[in-house]
Amino acid sequence: MKDFIYHAPTEVVFGKESEEQVAGLVRKYGGHTVLVHYGGGSAKRSGLLDKICGLLEEGGLKTVLLGGVVPNPRLSKVHEGIDLCRMKKVDFILSVGGGSVIDSAKAIAYGVPYKGDVWDFYLGKADAVECLPMGCVLTIPAAGSEMSDGSVITNEDGGVKLGYGTQLCRQKFAIMNPERSFTLPPYQTAAGVTDMMMHTMERFFSPEDDMTLTDAVAEAVLRTMKACVFDVLKDPEDYRARAQIMWGGSLAHNDLTGCGLSGDWATHQLEHELSGMFDVTHGAGLAAIWPSWARYVLQQNVSRFVRFAVNVMDVPNDFTDPVGTALKGIEAMERFYHSIGMPINIPELIGRDITEAEIAEMVRKCSHNYTVTQGRFKVLQPEDMTAIYRMAARQA
Amino acid sequence: MKDFIYHAPTEVVFGKESEEQVAGLVRKYGGHTVLVHYGGGSAKRSGLLDKICGLLEEGGLKTVLLGGVVPNPRLSKVHEGIDLCRMKKVDFILSVGGGSVIDSAKAIAYGVPYKGDVWDFYLGKADAVECLPMGCVLTIPAAGSEMSDGSVITNEDGGVKLGYGTQLCRQKFAIMNPERSFTLPPYQTAAGVTDMMMHTMERFFSPEDDMTLTDAVAEAVLRTMKACVFDVLKDPEDYRARAQIMWGGSLAHNDLTGCGLSGDWATHQLEHELSGMFDVTHGAGLAAIWPSWARYVLQQNVSRFVRFAVNVMDVPNDFTDPVGTALKGIEAMERFYHSIGMPINIPELIGRDITEAEIAEMVRKCSHNYTVTQGRFKVLQPEDMTAIYRMAARQA
Question: Which residues of A touch B2 (CB under 8 A)?
Fold first, then answer.
């Protein structure tokens, strides 16, 4: 068991019409001039953006708008946001959207008070010491950024996707109204659930396996997400199921499911190169990698995979054959991915075969020019990364 | 499902030697002159108190000591603390101990900036608007006060035990070193686990039963606590099991297991009168009441008790007989209580029969002179309280 710090101070305001409280919350956390940060047109088309801006202005707050954040959010948009915040003297950032919008906001919030280029933080060249306060109105449950300490930004110059995390960037509040996720298309819904489940699976597959309370909570989150995704794919307006998924996305990534564990995160790192190169949906990219990662690292701790198979995937435990039980858990996860429209390998993800040259390039980036390893459950050298990408390059 | 706010901002610093960080944490949260608040002699005897005071003083902080807090903490001690804090210009309260010490600290923290009597808050005559900042070094996992928003104080004048809760009194930090609970005697260990499990059971038995993620997390906490208590009763120095219990006590009561639920809390209210009258250990009092409460309210929502029986108590589900399955769950809980040395009725708790006059007096207090009901799963009128106390008055 690992010593840990657990500090998830975000105030979650959850339920129907929770967005009505937005102005009071921004004022409570010190905002006066608010950057309202959003993505594509859906927040605008649904009327949510106008509603939020109206509520803020009625509440005596100034608003500055910045839209156009795309999935795998771009550094150029972050720079644009930093300039805008400085020009308009913004003192609070409110994100309306999902993980991409919130991650972009976090980078802007780091960048505004920083004299250098905010990309320094993501490159590990500097550490942030301050940050604008932020809150969010969550519309896409997936990334968990609404309660997490992390953010991931893509530098278009070279397609480099890097993450940076500190306690500073925790959202002061997160407004979550499950109804706002009713219009999320099936593919995005499924990719979102895949992403949130992976946030917990990355923590579950740790070198430590003696923090049984965290394991039990993780399994509770995973089982519930797995059950609810079928309900919302059948009925996109199933409030109960949408609510479990929205709240599950936060619990999966606010560190609760990682207390006492180091976590692995190799699947995320391997996927970052995929979405950096092919601009695919992050959740789908994770599904395309995980089964190969799992088979590759299985022998590291078979009992951990047996626990996962039995407690999460409902595989009957064959006590005489732990490896067989573990493999059946991975196969069950593949069937689950397929059943919700997710890929289980790279060809299914990108619609064609991947070349050896592309794999080599991803390994080069993932290993930072062969200088770093990835993962903790099994520490992956560049040759391990190559092997996993090659496994994932084969059709099932 | 109920709309909810979840806001558990306490910074948890968990692990061996976590107390080494105490001075930095007090400074981080603005403390200069620190009331070090503790209970009986065990914190002193173990050397923990001296260590903490030494670390604070090395860290440039002034310390003021106040010990002698007893279980079911007294209003007179709270008044003493308020006077001391005002006299010494204390600006931070550090509790070293368990729920009684932290609850007492919360009342002191409310009282210092308040012009009237702090008991006003507990009587519902006034609402606190400010509060001294607080942190704690937890030594007794049970009450969950280290992350909760509540506190319970006993006014010796009349033996009245009342609770008061606001967001203001959340601890800024909670230092948790499982080793500090190694010396907890078996009875206190078992009563503590009973208390923490009840914090989650009070939330689980809600009028709402559609927040399946919260239910799954609650069951995870309950199952883990139930398993680990046997490990620590067998080996008091089992670090892994002590750690699960210490962290479980916080998760059981920081609201995580109540998201989307109203909660019931009748068992707690019925027990407060028992410990108000007989000064018994709170956890043991809960065990003496719950089985009678459960049988009395069972018909309100049989499927909820079936879920509890199957998912928490490992009772095989007899699909043809839900009431039978539910009752087996209650019986399994009684066997569990007995197996860890807890009572399952009032005679086992107080060592003699309880009189009708004593029951009448408890009902009078619990119903605030017949003016209030208790509970939400089933709303209990005074006659319901009488019926439950009478059931609990009978030997099994």
Answer: 15
